[in-house]
TrEMBL record:
This is Predicted flavoprotein CzcO associated with the cation diffusion facilitator CzcD. Its main location: endoplasmic reticulum. Belongs to the FMO family. Belongs to the FAD-binding monooxygenase family. It comes from Micromonospora sediminicola. Residues 19-29 have a biased composition (Basic and acidic residues).
């Protein structure tokens, strides 16, 4: 399919059609709109262009990289951020990272990787930087009206009509803030991990870190080195995976077991056996006993947390019960007196430019109802790319999600019966999971096992193209 211009930019004199409220709309023909120029948005632009589509990509910031560009206001990246999945399992399948990079690259290397990716595939010319999306509305014929304006609300709004839309605006930018009794009266400093950028923010302070995700564990480790005291509060026990096992990155060892189709129960046994040989019983360090089996929650890849707990530099404590003016009461009745509380309590997905019911969020929880974490019923020209929490890298998954969507859009014109069969498959598959049993919490809404998920994507591609 072709766009109304080779570059995917709006024509100087585009066709203007009326909208439902009579505002002028620029008709972009067969062009596809991509929202976001982070990792998922960039690979969507690249794969749609390779499939022959014109693309307009809108990015609210002034550069590529999304969450990995620390200059961006919404970036959750802090000074010491590294990948938690190893390089070979994170990179795009058609653009490998340099062989001389470390196993777990630094965030600055990731940003340079995205910049090189954008330049190699000549993607910047299709991106409108400094432009935020205000509204995305479905219109007759499975098309979409997308209203944009300059970031910050300056200048007039502009509405363009697109053949399809890809949502790639990320899901690690809208902080999930807990509610505790008395928090408003607490006189100490309170911040979400999204505002944490440098260890200097912790230096010399009594710090309470709330949350046991990868970010919470990283900040607790940095507090162990910089703060005068660090408490680490968790609701439940977790399994802390070392980044290296048998001399190799842990995800590479795990992937070997997956490739050999080792049953989940056997992999769980091997994991427990490895932990017993290395760190032993975590409860002897004061860490709570996990209330679930390994692989039933998102992996915590941290080799240093247990080290600093064992050295007394981190004090594990249970969940917070309530706040007082100068102290924090814990669920076991103890009181502590932190000067700084860091809520590493995660993020919630937000599509503030789109009505929730479009993605199946009927109860207002913010959780879309999708098949393959990408497709929703009733809107065959809409896809979400990158809304996954895998047990490995995400870039490969985003690549194949966008490849699948590009092929679906192509078949809508060339083989509509195949596209219609795909739509029926979407309706039948809503709510499918692609991982072992996981906890039902916002943190695990989009949990996927990368091997199971990629196989599901492969099956979807084969079904779409009529292969067996």
């Amino acid at each position: 399919m072709s766009s109304s211009t080779d570059l995917g930019r709006p024509d100087p004199d585009p066709t203007v059609v009326p909208s439902r409220d009579d505002r002028p709309v620029s008709d972009r023909g067969d062009t596809v709109c991509v929202i976001g120029a982070g990792a998922s948005g960039l690979t969507a632009v690249k794969n749609l262009r390779e499939a022959g589509f014109g693309v307009d990509c809108y990015e609210r910031e002034t550069g590529v990289g999304g969450a990995w560009n620390w200059r961006h206001d919404r970036s959750p990246v802090y000074a010491s951020t590294h990948l938690i999945s190893s390089r070979p399992f994170t990179q795009f399948p058609d653009f490998p990272m340099p062989d001389d990079w470390p196993d777990y690259p630094h965030h600055s290397q990731l940003l340079s990787y995205f910049e090189r990716y954008a330049d190699h595939f000549d993607l910047r010319q299709h991106v409108w930087f400094g432009t935020e999306v205000v509204r995305v509305e479905p219109v007759e014929g499975d098309r979409w009206d997308v209203t944009t304006r300059s970031t910050g609300g300056y200048g007039p709004e502009r509405t363009s009509r697109y053949a399809a839309v890809v949502l790639a605006n990320g899901h690690n930018w809208s902080p999930k803030l807990p509610r505790y009794e008395g928090l408003e009266e607490f006189r100490g400093e309170v911040m979400h991990a999204s505002s944490y950028k440098d260890p200097a923010q912790l230096r010399g302070k009594r710090v309470l870190v709330v949350g046991a995700g990868n970010t919470g564990c990283d900040i607790a480790v940095e507090a162990a080195q910089q703060a005068s005291h660090c408490w680490h509060s968790t609701r439940r026990g977790y399994w802390y995976a070392p980044k290296y096992v048998l001399g190799r990155p842990a995800d590479q060892v795990n992937d070997t077991l997956l490739a050999l189709r080792v049953p989940l129960r056997v992999r769980q046994w091997l994991y427990h056996w490895t932990l017993r040989l290395t760190v032993g019983d975590l409860t002897r360090f004061g860490l709570p006993k996990p209330d679930h089996r390994v692989y039933e929650t998102h992996p915590i890849a941290n080799s240093q947390l247990v080290y600093y707990v064992g050295h007394g530099e981190i004090t594990p404590v249970p969940d917070v019960a309530r706040f007082h003016d100068r102290t924090v009461e814990l669920t076991d009745g103890r009181r502590i007196d932190p000067e700084l509380v860091v809520f590493a309590t995660g993020y919630l997905p937000r599509f503030e430019f789109l009505k929730g019911r479009v993605l199946g969020d009927e109860d207002g929880s913010g959780r879309p109802r999708l098949w393959l974490n990408a497709f929703t019923a009733g809107h065959p020209t809409l896809a979400v790319v990158g809304l996954v929490q895998p047990d490995s890298g995400i870039f490969t998954i985003s690549h194949w999600q966008s490849v699948l969507f590009a092929r679906l859009l192509t078949l809508r014109a060339t083989r509509p019966e195949r596209a219609e069969a795909f739509d029926r498959r979407v309706r039948a598959g809503l709510g499918e999971r692609y991982s072992a049993k996981v906890k039902d919490s916002t943190r695990h809404w989009f949990e996927v096992g990368h091997a199971d998920y990629l196989r599901a994507l492969q099956r979807a591609l084969h079904e779409l193209e009529g292969s067996k």
